[in-house]
Amino acid sequence: MTAIRAFSRWTVLVPVLAEAVLLLTWGRDLPMVVMAFVALVLAGAVLAAVHHAEVVAHRVGEPYGSLVLAVAVTVIEVALIVTLMIGGGAGAESLARDTVFAAVMITCNGIMGLSLLIGALRRRIAVFNSEGTGGAFATVATITTLSLVLPTFTTSKPGPEFTPAQLAFAAIASLGLYALFVAMQTVRHRDYFLPLNDEGEILDDEVHAEPPTSRAALISLGLLMVSLIAVVGNAKAVSPAIEAGVVAAGFPLAVVGVVIALLVLAPETLAAVRAARRDRVQTSLNLALGSAMASIGLTIPAIAIASIWLDGPLMLGLGPTHMVLLALTVVTGTLTIVPGRATLLQGGVHLGLLAAFLFLAVSP
User: Fold this and answer.
1) Taking Cα atoms as reference points, which of 293, 308, 323 lies closest to residue 148?
2) Model confidence, pTM
3) Is the Cβ–Cβ distance between 143 and 293 less than 8 Å?
4) Domains along the sequence of the chain with CATH
5) Chief location of this protein (predicted)?
């Protein structure tokens, strides 16, 4: 109980500290030591934001909780992408593509693989609802193809780019499919996204812990907003350090997008792992696929709007290597999800695909 209270104090103090750092450093050239401190505060604000989103999520229950977490993480991701793109520099035109695709690979292979691995270690077989998970995965595959694969093959504009009309269509289609999924997840087929036991029966998702009070949930909602504002502002201060570090290491500029995705999805990964350890594999998969879907369904429309005032091209089309990895992920994910049961093998295969993606990101 003492540890829980201490962690609760930590999640209150960090957003306040992050806001203070934002006010003190806004618009200034920062020395490396100060920038390192801001980066630590930024990471703490990300963790605090997702913690408070999790408190709100626990109050409203599944599958609404996974939705709250996914949207919170996506707001952070969009803020970081737009901040770095506004700063310009080499690779800014492909930053949105690199980050969104990295998020898809991390969620559909990394988080899914970890969730299935932990679930299978606990019960020998990880059990989940194939109807809900399959629908979510199909939506992720469709939005990813519309937004990141088609630009490579369209001919109205040279290069892996959309014309303004095509970009508007992709943005509207992504947002529409995401909204349709949310309606299915929260209203029409909510039972498809609730945890199952070994016999395939729906578990009561509230029995594992007492939900917070309405007052606690409202406080967390307010601190969540404070944390997100701090993340947006402090990201602008550390963005030069991220780019400089990648260049200094001799990695391709696409690694910047991978770093952003790893940063914003790390707390989401921890939440999914905790759910899998509580034998809530379905909740873990909701977090994984919900984050992937929100990453594309909300980021692409936001970038489309931002492109109105952003200078330079917006490259969204994937290259051949990434398209092969995406196709393999879709095939493997489909074979994993259809039975509604998975073993250690499926979890290991997905983690192997993530490892391939990360290796090829630094050594293309």
Assistant:
1) 323
2) 0.82
3) yes
4) 2-362 (1.20.1420.30)
5) membrane
